Each structure stands twice: as C-alpha cells, then as structure tokens.
C-alpha cells in the first residue's frame, strides 16, 4: 500500500469508504501537467519533481487520511464549565477551486458540558490541521471544526473563527494580496446566549489583525 487509509471526507471523515494516496498516479499527473505547460519533465532540474510534488501533496492533504474521531478520542473530566479558548493556531490549507494555498490563523473555543468533558488543548490545534490539510473552502473548514467538537465533546457551546489570506486572490485573478477573509461557526450556548458569545468575541477580537 502506498498511502494511509482514511474515511470518506463526504461523511465528514468519520465513516465511509476507505481510500489511499496513489503516489504513482500523482507522479504521472504532475509529469503530465509539466508537459501540458510546455515544460520538459526530463530536463535535469525537473527529473525528480513529479515524485517530490506527489510526496508534498500526500503531506499537504494528510487530513484526508485521518479520522477526526481519533484526534478527539481522548477526553478527560475536569470540572470547568466555562470558556476554553485557544487563539492564533497557525493554519495552512488549499482552496479547492484553484489548489492554491490559503493561510492564516484559527481561534477555537468551547464551553465544556456539565460533566466537565474536556480535551487536551493540542487536540484543538490537531483538529484544525486535520480539516485544513484537505482541498477546502474556508467556510466548510470553519464549520467542520465546530461540528467535530459538537459531536465528540457534546459541549454547551463552540466558537470557531478563521482568518485567512487566499493566494488565489493575491498572486493571480483579482490580485488583491493582503486581503483577508474571516469566517465563523458558532454553536450551542455561544450562539444562543448573548453574554457568552460577547465574552468569546471580545477575547477573539483582540487577536484579529
Ligand atoms: N466562498 C469561498 N470562495 C472561495 C474560497 N476560495 C476561493 N474562493 C473563490 O472561488 C471562486 C471561484 O470562482 P470562478 O469564477 O469559478 O473561478 P475563477 O474564474 O478562477 O475566478 P477568479 O478567482 O475571480 O479569477 C473565486 O471567486 C474565489 O475567490 C473559499 O474558501 N470560500
Ligand atoms: Zn482559489
């Protein structure tokens, strides 16, 4: 097997068909793309490029091959029923329209449920990585992170804010480098209670550029 097995992203990566990264097929596709661009994939500088690019894509799309339930499988009880917020989680993803990067930061917060079910702080950053390392749109990335937390931790509330720059809007097309897009996904108490939401927004607002 050339790749790692994973669950189908169409079902949020939790269940479904298993698939693998096909290194040889990716190499052939990159070689074909170079030919289509009028390049010579056999010249010295490009000889190893298809294999290199294929390996890079396997790494950059690693989130396709990991089940989010694994990331949040370890939880523990801690009697804390108030906001837990990790800000400024660096995030690199790929816009699925152009396969160009969009990158920025994610802010992820939740209010544990009355049983105090919490997860390790690093798991929030791992969850961001898992959903970012796929062909994505920023809105879906944001809501997938929020919904995974809702499913796995059954928290009283969740807030996810992603602020990113899309290179497809900077280095080509409309050419607006430096423009940033902010998306949010808010669930449960953080959506329904104005005071809970205000507290979280206030903390996150200071982190936005
Ligand atoms: N909503 C949303 N749009 C995105 C995201 N990433 C890229 N896009 C947009 O996807 C759209 C694709 O538009 P198309 O008209 O199909 O493609 P295009 O001709 O290359 O568009 P231009 O980028 O305007 O040149 C563009 O407007 C992009 O800015 C994203 O994460 N969310
Ligand atoms: Zn794009």
UniProtKB/TrEMBL annotation:
**What Pfam families is this protein classified in?**
GTP_cyclohydroI (PF01227)
State any GO CC term. Answer: cytoplasm
What Enzyme Commission number does this protein have?
3.5.4.16
Give GO terms for biological process: one-carbon metabolic process; tetrahydrobiopterin biosynthetic process; tetrahydrofolate biosynthetic process
Q: Name one GO molecular function term.
A: zinc ion binding
Q: Which reaction does it catalyse?
A: GTP + H2O = 7,8-dihydroneopterin 3'-triphosphate + formate + H(+)
Domain GTP cyclohydrolase I: from-to ranges: 27-204
Keyword Nucleotide-binding tagged: yes
According to UniProt, this protein's pathway is: Cofactor biosynthesis; 7,8-dihydroneopterin triphosphate biosynthesis; 7,8-dihydroneopterin triphosphate from GTP: step 1/1
Q: Which UniProt keywords apply?
A: GTP-binding, Hydrolase, Metal-binding, Nucleotide-binding, One-carbon metabolism, Zinc
Amino-acid positions noted as binding Zn(2+) in the UniProt annotation, renumbered to this chain: 95, 98, 168
Domain of life, per UniProt, equals: Bacteria
HAMAP family according to UniProt: FolE
Q: How does it assemble?
A: Homopolymer.
Q: Which family does it belong to?
A: Belongs to the GTP cyclohydrolase I family.
Protein name, as recorded = GTP cyclohydrolase 1
Q: Which species is listed as the source?
A: Saccharothrix violaceirubra
The major lineage groups are: Bacteria, Bacillati, Actinomycetota, Actinomycetes, Pseudonocardiales
């Amino acid at each position: 097997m050339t790749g790692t097995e994973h669950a189908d992203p169409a079902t949020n990566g939790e269940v479904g068909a298993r698939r693998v990264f096909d290194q040889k097929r990716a190499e052939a596709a990159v070689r074909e793309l170079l030919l289509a661009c009028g390049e010579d994939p056999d010249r010295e500088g490009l000889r190893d490029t298809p294999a290199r690019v294929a390996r890079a894509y396997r790494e950059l799309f690693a989130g396709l091959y990991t089940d989010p339930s694994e990331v949040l499988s370890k939880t523990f009880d801690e009697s804390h029923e108030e906001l837990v917020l990790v800000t400024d989680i660096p995030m690199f993803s790929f816009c699925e329209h152009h396969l160009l990067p969009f990158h920025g930061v994610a802010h992820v917060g939740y209010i544990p449920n009355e049983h105090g079910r919490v997860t390790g702080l690093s798991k929030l950053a791992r969850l961001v990585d898992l959903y970012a390392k796929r062909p994505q749109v920023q809105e879906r990335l944001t809501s997938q992170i929020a919904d995974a937390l809702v499913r796995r931790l059954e928290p009283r509330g969740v807030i996810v804010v992603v602020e990113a720059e899309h290179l497809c809007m900077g280095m080509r097309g409309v050419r607006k480098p430096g423009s940033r897009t902010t998306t949010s996904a808010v669930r449960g108490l953080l959506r329904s209670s104005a005071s809970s939401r205000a507290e979280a927004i206030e903390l996150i607002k200071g982190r936005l550029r």
